[in-house]
UniProtKB/TrEMBL annotation:
Database matches in SUPFAM superfamilies: FAD/NAD(P)-binding domain (SSF51905), Succinate dehydrogenase/fumarate reductase flavoprotein, catalytic domain (SSF56425)
Record protein name field: FAD-dependent oxidoreductase 2 FAD-binding domain-containing protein
Domain FAD-dependent oxidoreductase 2 FAD-binding: 39-262
Upper lineage: Eukaryota, Haptista, Haptophyta, Prymnesiophyceae, Isochrysidales
PANTHER family cross-referenced by the UniProt entry: FUMARATE REDUCTASE (PTHR43400)
Length: 327
């Protein structure tokens, strides 16, 4: 019987064979150009760094974290199919769980210490350099003050779309978006950005807050300010967007800003996202989860789709395997 390590190595080799055509300088160039086109800017140093180091990052995920990246998909704004994902399951969970496993392994070896239940209060500086962090941690007698000094400090947080208060970063940089729902959790209040600003750090591209075209409207709580994101893969496998009157109005594989612009120009605020059986099967992990959450339903045939859309029979053209509200 093949040993686990050998089996894992064999799986990695199979994945590399499946995607060998993608691991090239040509693909890096395409990644850079797709990104720049979507951002409506030239290829700058940050985009170039992302593109040129993509292969190394993929290699690390495969060999070090043992992430299954055997499938290739084309998503919105992509020139060709170039996004890697697992054969089953969602890529986000696959990445987070795999890296979490590696973190636990390092922690058990004594090479890493993790602190939870903490709140960063400020960055320590000395001679213009960051040398650590002040933080609080819940103790038996309330919040305890701590200082942690380090040669290197990495600030890896900063999402802020969940804070819609008058003094929020969203109000400062994109007040036009304050009325929109967000897929960000309650924790995304921009604390990381504010920590940097307090020691004089500059910010960049703060106004580039992405508006995603597909956030589920939960029938159980349609007015909720926080929406569950409908993954990009759903459109990538062939889902179409329909207005409430059953009209397809956009090429779903365009970049997100183009899809959002088409939605805003349609005259509607809520849309249906519809997959046929083949697409629903390809995105089975996503569809199954969304159905479990009550965000997607399965219908059989065009007439049933028309009934779900509340339009006359025959208005909805083409079969469907499932649908969900998107706003």
């Amino acid at each position: 019987e093949e040993q686990p390590a050998a089996a894992a190595a064999a799986a990695v080799e199979e994945e590399e064979e499946a995607t060998s055509a993608l691991s090239s300088s040509a693909l890096s160039s395409l990644l850079a150009s797709d990104t720049a086109r979507s951002a409506q800017r030239d290829v700058d140093a940050r985009i170039a760094t992302l593109a040129t180091h993509a292969d190394a990052a993929i290699e690390w995920l495969r060999r070090r974290a043992r992430v299954d990246l055997s499938q290739v998909a084309q998503l919105g704004g992509h020139s060709i199919a170039r996004t890697l994902r697992p054969a089953s399951g969602a890529i986000g969970y696959a990445l987070v769980s795999a890296v979490h496993t590696q973190v636990l392994a390092f922690e058990s070896s004594g090479l890493l210490t993790t602190l939870t239940g903490c709140r960063a209060m400020g960055l320590l500086t000395q001679d213009g350099c960051v040398v650590g962090v002040n933080f609080t941690r819940d103790g038996d007698e309330g919040a305890e003050q701590h200082t942690l000094r380090a040669k290197h400090t990495v600030l890896a947080t900063g999402g802020f779309a969940s804070d819609r208060s008058p003094s929020s970063l969203l109000a400062r940089h994109r007040p036009d978006l304050l009325s929109l729902a967000s897929s960000n959790g309650d924790w995304a209040t921009g604390d990381g950005v504010k920590l940097g600003e307090r020691i004089g750090a500059a910010t960049v591209d703060m106004e580039r807050v992405q508006v995603h075209p597909t956030g589920f409207v939960d029938p159980a709580s349609p007015a909720a300010a926080t929406k569950f994101l409908c993954g990009e893969l759903v459109r990538g496998v062939g889902a179409i967007l329909l207005t409430p009157d059953g009209t397809r109005f956009v090429n779903e594989m365009q970049a997100r800003d183009k899809v959002v612009a088409a939605q805003r120009g349609s005259g509607f605020d809520v849309f249906g996202i519809v997959l046929n059986k083949a697409a629903a099967t390809e995105a089975a992990a996503h569809v199954g989860f969304y159905k479990h959450k009550g965000l997607m339903v399965e219908v059989e045939g065009v007439d049933a789709l028309a009934q779900w859309l509340c339009v006359p029979p025959g208005v909805a053209k083409g079969g469907a395997g499932g649908g969900g509200g998107s706003g």
